[in-house]
Amino acid sequence: MVSAVSTSDLNLDLCAQEPIRIPGSIQPHGMLVVVDPDSRQIVQVSANASALLGNDRREAVLGLSLRQAIGEIAERQITAWLRTADSSYLRTLEINGRRLQVLGHQTPQGVVLEFEQPPASEVETLEAYYPRIGRFMEDVSAYADLADLCNAAAREFRRISGFNRVMIYSFDAQWNGEVLAEDGDGVLPSYLGHRFPASDIPAQARELYRLNRLRIIPDANYQPVPLEPAFHPRDGKPLDMSFAALRSVSPVHLQYMRNMGTIASMSISILMDGKLWGLVSCHNATPRRVNAQARTACDLLGKVLSQHIGARQRNAYAAKRIDLKRIESELLTKIASSDSFQSGLAANANIWLGLTGAAGAAVLHDDAIFTVGATPSAARLRMLTEKLQAQGTESFATDSLGLEWPDFADLSEVASGVLAISISQLHPSYIFWFRPEVERTVLWAGDPRKPTETVHDRLHPRLSFASWKEQVKNRALPWSQAEIDGALDFRNAIINFVLRRAEERAELTSQLQRSNKELESFSYSVSHDLRAPFRHIVGYTQLLREREKSLSAQSQHYLDSINEAAASAGQLVDDLLSFSQLGRTTLAVLPVDMHKLMQEIIRSVEPDIRGRQIEWKVQPLPPTTGDAGLLRQALYNLVDNSLKYTRDRTPAVVEIGGEQTRTECIYTVRDNGVGFDMAYVHKLFGVFQRLHRMEEFAGTGIGLALTRRIIERHGGWIEARGVVEQGAEFRFGLPRRGDNLDG
Amino acid sequence: MADLRPILLVEDNLKDIELTLAALAKCQLANDIVVARDGAEALEYLYCRGRYQDRIPGDPAVVLLDLKLPKVDGLEVLAKIKSEGATRSVPVVMLTSSREESDLVRSYELGVNAFVVKPVDFNRFFEAIQDLGMFWGVLNETPPRSWTNRDPT
């Protein structure tokens, strides 16, 4: 059963669950009846409803027809309203010899009619308020800022309603209210600039305030009047009084009012885009009733105020967005001409920071970090990125990082404010903006940490509303909606940019593949058509030599030269072909016994070094993985090189060694040959690069280039050291993990 | 000892023909050398068609086949020879300038009997040609004609 909760049962923890829409009772300054829309029978009444009938009738109102209860003339008015599409009704009607203000609204449970006797002293028609409201509407655009506008509105609300004090306050993101404007006659204390904690107005009350814009409590010490029967006869549920002006309020709220020293109150919601933006809160130290016309005027004024605040905010937002859009296009233009968006950002620090009005910014992409201004360390940025990645949101904005994520409290000084946008769904890639902590003092109307106090073992709303100063730490200036939206726009632009770059890269890759294909067919032709003429030259000189037995020594020499030239040109073509083929053949990666390979190479060069004194110093070589054929060629070239450049040494010493580290196998080929000048070491591995004159040492100049290419295709490295006339040393390393191979 | 079937040299380059013939002459083979200048002519010879429709039937001892040929190229000729029951057992040696990997792979896929890259060095070229002539023209035994002419399908 529903009954008025007695003040002694107060439990504020239950505040948020309290069924404020179905209190089952009304405030005593009026009467309420529920009329069945079809039968026009009265099906539910407030216990004081019999007063409707006037002094001479004593019968119960419940069960009467509406006409029986309020008379034919009034009933016709109501019926006329019900035939219209209007959802609510307000009129002063003559009922059973008295003038009563009648408020009507329709609910699924029936037509709810509320009757109030107008306060005798202040009977004023709605028309009387019009000039004042009209003036306000004319002046309203002249107020430069929000505070001026709200102060003017507060004055107007107070003039119309006659309360001791009118406050206008707005909610912050946490639903704390901050008093922006106030007008009072000095009877009640001023709370201008103070804050009221979110717990003062529980969530379900805020939702009701959003739906029903105006509430009034003429006397906080009232005795509630119950509804009879408690449950609606048709659906068995308590009456939903969301839109009833007489709705009885929570006893906690009444206690709150008494603690605050305000016995009468009226509040009007300020809505913005359907959301509760703030409240106009009117208070009186003594009981005070406001007639329905004044309430309607206040309601109208509230709408005007809402619209103007809304317009101002939209204008301010639009202006800011235009401003930020200009910055964004400037930044995007710069980025478009940069190598990467990260370098574009870093090179234009001021514009980047200006996009959100930040003091520091960072971009983390492909594991690289660029920062400008004051930012957390790279290590902390990575942790922040991990945390964001784990949350999986596209964007994140806070003005109090350390309070929201205590793990990051150490960053408060530079990064209390964080605005982050994710620019890749696959990889941890973020752009960050940071704002430093700004310490400031906030005034609260009473200590917000103690919304309740225990008095005589009972919980009460806080007793003191005296100014309470809070030093706010770990908070930055909050990001505005325009800044957050601007960052989101920027996010889309960057994602498009990254995608476009990827497409360009893909396009480039396919172009490269095309030109690679062309090169391939070119070298194919070369291998066929360029080799043949050299072969023919060699062949015909040989035939000529066999046919002409009596050639002079000079002619013999000419033939030899032709033969040599053609043979070395043919060799050159062959070497070039194997070099170009190396880029496109697939590696056949298998375990390779490098020691055995080396022994085999030494055996294969034996015929070429017959008659030379060679001292081989071969240490055991560690095995590796790779393409045995190619590795053989690489090693062979090095050994061949050593043999070639030690031609004049007796003995020639060729040392071959190997070692194994945790990550790679390193092989060394060293000789005591002619060596080379380290000044030219960078030319050693180039194609056609020779450090010696052709006639000194034969060769095509491709061998070492080929060797390096083989080593690099295995994911390894090669280096050379030499001293002129003392010898050369080549070292190459191959990774021990097979997964580094590109083949 | 195989009966003396001719060697079919399929080569479009006159100089290569001359040098190859010079090399083959050196080993004094008794086999005839038939030279076809392109793939189409090689096929006419093999299947006794066109300008070879009146020749005495019989398969060559070996086909020395260049890869790059006018009209019908070496790989196409090889494919044809190895796909026809009548010529499947005719030995084919690719004799080419290219050691291109893809050509090697393709040739072996098609059933080539040997793949020889012509060496630039003339002595080695001579040796290679002579070896080929000796091996395929003299030493290698071809299957009996009765089997050769059978269509395995």
Describe the model:
Chain A is an alpha+beta fold. Among the domains of chain A are: 30-116, PAS domain (Beta-Lactamase), CATH 3.30.450.20; 123-224 and 249-315, GAF domain (Beta-Lactamase); 585-740, 2-Layer Sandwich (Heat Shock Protein 90). In chain A, 38% of the residues lie in helices and 24% in strands. Chain A is built from 17 helices and 29 strands. In chain A, strands 10-12-13-7-8-9-19-22 form an eight-stranded mixed β-sheet. In chain A, helix 3 packs antiparallel against helix 4 (146-161) and helix 4 (146-161) packs antiparallel against helix 7. The relative contact order of chain A is 0.06. Chain B has 153 residues and is of the alpha/beta class. Chain B is built from six helices and five strands; from the N terminus they run βαβαβαβαβαα. In chain B, strands 2-1-3-4-5 form a five-stranded parallel β-sheet, sandwiched between helices. In chain B, strand 4 (92-96), helix 4 (101-110) and strand 5 form a beta-alpha-beta unit. In chain B, helix 1 crosses helix 5 (122-139) and helix 3 (74-83) runs parallel beside helix 4. The radius of gyration of chain B is 15 Å and the shape is globular. In chain B, 35% of the residues are buried. The interface between A and B is medium-sized, with 25 and 21 residues.
Keywords:
heterodimer, A: about 750 residues, alpha+beta, Beta-Lactamase, seven-stranded antiparallel β-sheet, 17 helices, 29 strands, disordered C terminus, B: about 150 residues, alpha/beta, Rossmann fold, globular
| Overall mean confidence score, pLDDT of chain A | 86
CATH class of the domain at 123-224 and 249-315 in chain A: Alpha Beta
Under CATH, the topology of chain B is which? Answer: Rossmann fold
Q: What is the correct CATH architecture of chain B?
A: 3-Layer(aba) Sandwich
CATH superfamily of the domain at 123-224 and 249-315 in chain A: GAF domain
Question: In sequence order, what are the helices and strands of chain B, one letter per element?
Answer: EHEHEHEHEHH
Beta fraction of chain A: 15-25%
**General form of chain A:** rod-shaped
Largest interface: A-B, 25 and 21 residues
Q: Assign the structural class of chain B, choosing from mainly alpha, mainly beta, alpha/beta, alpha+beta, or little secondary structure.
A: alpha/beta
Biggest pleated-sheet summary of chain B: 5 strands, parallel
Based on helices, strands and strand pairing, what is the structural class of chain A?
A: alpha+beta
Instruction: Kindly identify the CATH topology of the domain at 123-224 and 249-315 in chain A.
Output: Beta-Lactamase
